[in-house]
Design goal:
Elements (H helix, E strand, L loop, with lengths): L9 H12 L6 E5 L6 H13 L18 H8 L5 E4 L9 H11 L9 E5 L7 H12 L5 E7 L7 H4 L4 E3 L5 H12 L3 H9 L5 H27 L4 H12 L5 H26 L13 H8 L4 H19 L4 H11 L1
Parallel strand pairs: 1-4, 1-5, 2-3, 3-4
The chain binds zinc ion.
Length: 337
């Protein structure tokens, strides 16, 4: 991802581009700032700008990567031999062995690039022993290597490490910048992107996270609907379930959106229940993690009922699209399931 495609941070990015163009990039830097604002993307952009085979130049960026040559593409994929990223493993921490390995490799000349770039993402996840192992390298960095430490909690780094890495401070993005990234890179509609960006504190990462929290909650609600309607045919109880779906203080647009997300989730569960009920290939399950509970539901929702219910969800979504009242749609659907 070349500098010109990164959202925000224009002054900082043009400083980096100039340093790379003039071969004055420091051997070690710390990219510090809130999570989800583009620090790691910038580290990758630095690696590309340094090692690109057909670098470009513009008023904004004295040197930038083309983004398309073999070198840029391999760096983006993480397969360039001279660009190494170290990040926390499953344990959540960066182990001393991981750092020793890249330190050893950084002593040699780059295989094919101009300079070797070592990106240490979430550098604060390295324990004191691991950071100490890095310290000597930061004191006398190999000339053909650049170390980029990335951290959203830089205060967790050893003072000795901090003192050897000039700090590049990344601030939050503006809501407009967050929204543009959500639309361009994550397929958001303009409306959804603006809504998510308004509540994201300038962090693309946070906007994406809160969406996935929403989806998790939506799927739980959808599962509750299926459980509540599986055997119980009492219309009053069903209307109560529908009320739970739409109650709460929200704007009409939020309410419509919230119900639509739940209905899509309900459709996905019903499709899976239908797969189980009709003994089709379970590899096709979209919610495989819920397989056991969906299996239980399939004793109430046989193939025919789940198909009928799926069609009802489809009609409910179409009605929402035509601006029908979310409350009426929820009531109608709950009686149809
Ligand atoms: Zn390139």
């Amino acid at each position: 991802m070349p500098f010109r495609t990164i959202a925000g941070h224009s002054r900082l990015l043009s400083l980096l581009a100039r340093a790379i163009a003039r071969d004055s990039m420091p051997p070690a830097v710390l990219m510090a700032g809130p999570a989800g604002v583009g620090k790691r993307l910038t580290a990758v952009a630095v690696a590309q700008a340094i090692n690109c085979l057909h670098p470009t130049a513009s008023n904004a960026f004295e040197r930038d990567a083309c983004g398309e040559c073999a070198s840029c593409r391999r760096i983006a994929r993480g397969t360039h031999p001279d660009v190494v990223t170290v990040e926390p493993g499953e344990s959540g921490s960066i182990k001393i062995e991981q750092l020793r390995d890249v330190i050893d490799r950084s002593q040699f000349r780059p295989f094919e690039g101009r300079r070797r770039v070592v990106i240490i993402d979430e550098a604060d996840a390295a324990g004191a022993d691991a950071q100490s192992a890095l310290l000597k390298t930061l004191e006398e960095p190999p000339s053909a290597s650049v170390f980029i430490l990335v951290s959203s909690i830089p205060d967790a780094l050893l003072p000795t490490v901090l003192s050897r890495c000039p700090r590049l401070r990344f601030g939050p993005l503006t809501p407009g910048e967050v929204a543009r990234v959500l639309m361009r890179d994550h397929g958001y509609s303009e409306h959804d992107a603006r809504a998510a960006a308004a509540d994201a504190d300038g962090s693309v990462g946070r906007a994406l996270q809160s969406q996935s929290d929403d989806l998790t909650e939506a799927r739980e609600d959808a599962e509750r609907i299926l459980q509540a309607t599986a055997r119980d045919t009492d219309p009053v109880k069903r209307i109560n379930v529908a009320r739970n779906l739409t109650e709460g203080k929200r704007t009409p647009a939020e309410e419509r959106n919230r119900l639509a997300v739940r209905l899509r989730s309900l459709g996905s569960l019903l499709r899976d229940v239908g797969i189980i009920a009709s003994r089709a290939d379970r590899a096709m399950l979209a919610n495989a993690d819920l397989e056991g509970r969906l299996e239980t539901l399939s004793s109430s929702f046989d193939a025919e009922r789940s198909q009928r219910a799926y069609a009802a969800v489809d009609r409910a979504l179409a009605a929402l699209d035509r601006n029908a009242s979310p409350k009426l749609v929820a009531d109608w659907l709950l009686l149809e399931l």
